[in-house]
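sanity check this record:
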Amino acid sequence: MKIGMILDAPFPPDPRVENEAVSLVNSGHEVFLFCLQYSNEKKSEKLKGIKVKRFTSNTFEYKLSALAYTIPMYTWLMQKKIHQFINSTEVEVLHIHDIKIAEAVFRANQKFKLPVVLDLHDNLPEVMKLYPHLQKFPGKYIISPKKWKTKEEEFIKKANKVITVSPEFIESIKERIPTSEKKLVLVPNTIRQSFYKNYTIENSILKRYTNQFVLLYLGDTHLRRGLQTAIAAVKVLKDEIPNIKLVIVGKNTTDTILKQQVQELNIEQFVDFEGWQNVSLFQSYILSSAICISPLHRNLQHDVAYANKIFQYMSFSKPLLVSDATAQKKLVTKHKTGLVHLDRDVKDFVAKTLQLYHDNNLREELGVNGKQFIENEFSWEQTSKKLLHLYDNLSS
């Protein structure tokens, strides 16, 4: 098929979009990707077999996107670009990445009447509630997550197929929209085998942490990711684990709060803020670690979605310490790949860390279980089969 993917952002980078598109190309489909251009990238190019079509955007349009379901201007502007994209590529199906641009796609498609696949990367209406700019004026009064949730339900009903990222997400949609059950397809965010098979080691990272007992965190460091719990735990853990080091690889605008917490606890020597690093260095950080963490706060988004980092951790046989956010708790418990602590409970985080610290055999066992799970069940090469099956059925 000629598949038209719609992304309301620049490309690259977007690992989920790339993984899906490359898999479909390798399966014999032709993938055209609509994306936005904010600088001087090529208007049109072929990347890993994906036919990328960039449409000029600007800061004004970007800011309007937050108001997509408050005022219709963003939808109107995008609708014209998408209409042009469909006309020029003659695609046979539309694949929408998330709901921000969905209304524009459905409106542009009124003339063409192409089948539509809606790909929900996140429970976006719930994520929005956590955005700092929605906690204060004016965002609090002009952007309504409730309205976005209503729109999400509308789009789910309109789409021919709906892709989601976890079993918990599927169950939540079934409860809200029972009639959608037959159109739901699970395609979780997993990692390609190349992540743990084809990589280069950065020896300086391994050398730096050779004599440290490293608790590693990779990814976005927003406060909802739970790092305040880990930092508070280090204050206690350092007395029993003198060589402990919390290594944080990632960043967010809320990092000033985390760094202030470290200073106030006087534990600067036990916490490294590495900032955002190239993904090519992730493997070296993971290899340097003893325990890998995902202390997510429980909320309606985190309870139904996996953080991709936990699969990166497991692919290198590392034991996990995760919060009891529902989706990751179920997965880690079922496959025996780590221990679970209560959300935002410093005492429990400390207890589980010490349990792993004092039991090397347990750490090894959990690590081996994680590695086997990734290799046998949860690499992208395995989980993408449902995506390919979806398109095989559409084409038939």
